[in-house]
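User: quick one, sequence for these tokens?
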């Protein structure tokens, strides 16, 4: 199912609910996820010690308006974001958003114990070591994880401009991998094993390995759903839009028997891309196990629109020898008035948006 049809289903499910739960609640929080293929929004309300997802929305991103995780055409994005929120019945003007892809650099640093003021200066000094050559226009921040901070930098102004154009403000800016993990991380408190989180976007994919909330490894690889679409277009002589529709409707990762007919052509077209993703995942697992972690890896959790590719989870599990499952950002939240089948269908796509909304609701 393509993004347009999913967006229509979400709007139909929410029709008539615009005066419902959370519309005017001072405790509601809205997350907006800037994807290069789709924009996603989620509203979360905090009540009685828990969280409820009250509204969600998905809309097609104007072509070329988001690239490498950053807004590149604020003029085109502003009206679309406004439409996304209006169609979803979201009225809050304060949102939480994030930067993603290669625009955000996440690194783990080990620093000696020092006062907070000195730590800030030391982090600022260390940032330059991790920037690509010639890059200087950055902002950085850090979070202490058991006295182990990480930093990230990104161009903020372009990313905030479409929110302002839509009449919105954002008091919180994250990086997308942290939002995704917040939404789908296991709640069982098992600190004896590590979990691998893989968010497969359109342009790139994030790979994170964490033990509970302690980040151990973070990578971004420049391959995602667009690579699958391009492979299908080239193999079958289709334009990009037709190839994307075919991918979303019929493509699948083959686990056992070789498919017949046009499914075989599709499988052969996407297999090199799937193999590349598998190789990058294996490299990440090998590096973690050899250098970083005493805790064994318990499972891999997939999110992002491409995670919905049929049979992708069992395919990767068979290749890597690790259990693989689809992430469900609604697992730790109630859903108010949303059809269960719709929630299940869009769950992998909504991880970042729900994680951002949870970030705002937890403040």
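Assistant:
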């Amino acid at each position: 199912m393509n993004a347009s049809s999913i967006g229509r289903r979400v709007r139909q499910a929410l029709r008539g609910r615009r005066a419902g739960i959370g519309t005017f609640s001072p405790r509601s929080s809205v997350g907006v996820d800037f994807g290069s293929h789709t924009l996603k929004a989620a509203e979360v309300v905090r009540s009685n010690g828990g969280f409820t997802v009250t509204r969600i929305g998905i809309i097609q991103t104007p072509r070329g308006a988001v690239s490498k995780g950053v807004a590149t055409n604020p003029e085109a994005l502003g009206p679309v974001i406004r439409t996304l929120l209006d169609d979803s019945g979201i009225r809050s003007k304060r949102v939480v958003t994030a930067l993603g892809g290669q625009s955000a650099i996440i690194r783990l640093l080990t620093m000696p114990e020092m006062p907070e003021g000195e730590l800030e200066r030391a982090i600022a000094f260390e940032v330059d070591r991790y920037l690509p050559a010639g890059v200087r226009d950055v902002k950085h921040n850090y979070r202490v994880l058991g006295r182990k901070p990480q930093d990230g930098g990104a161009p903020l102004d372009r990313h905030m401009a479409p929110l302002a154009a839509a009449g919105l403000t954002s008091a919180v800016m994250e990086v997308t991998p942290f939002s995704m993990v917040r939404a789908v991380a296991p709640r069982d408190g098992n600190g004896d094993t590590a979990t691998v989180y893989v968010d497969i976007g359109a342009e790139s994919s994030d790979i994170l390995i964490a033990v509970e909330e302690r980040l151990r490894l973070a990578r971004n690889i420049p391959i995602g759903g667009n690579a699958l679409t391009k492979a299908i277009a080239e193999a079958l002589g289709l334009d990009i839009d037709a190839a994307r529709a075919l991918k979303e409707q019929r493509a699948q990762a083959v686990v056992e028997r070789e498919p017949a007919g046009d499914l075989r052509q599709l499988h052969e077209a996407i297999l090199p891309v799937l193999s590349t993703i598998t190789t990058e995942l294996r490299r990440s697992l090998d590096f973690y196990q050899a250098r970083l972690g005493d805790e064994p890896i318990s499972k891999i959790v997939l999110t992002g629109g491409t995670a919905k590719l049929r049979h992708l989870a069992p395919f990767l599990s068979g290749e890597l020898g690790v259990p693989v499952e689809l992430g469900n950002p609604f697992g730790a939240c109630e859903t108010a008035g949303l059809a269960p089948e719709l929630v299940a269908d869009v769950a992998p796509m909504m991880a970042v948006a729900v994680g951002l909304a949870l970030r705002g609701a937890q403040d």
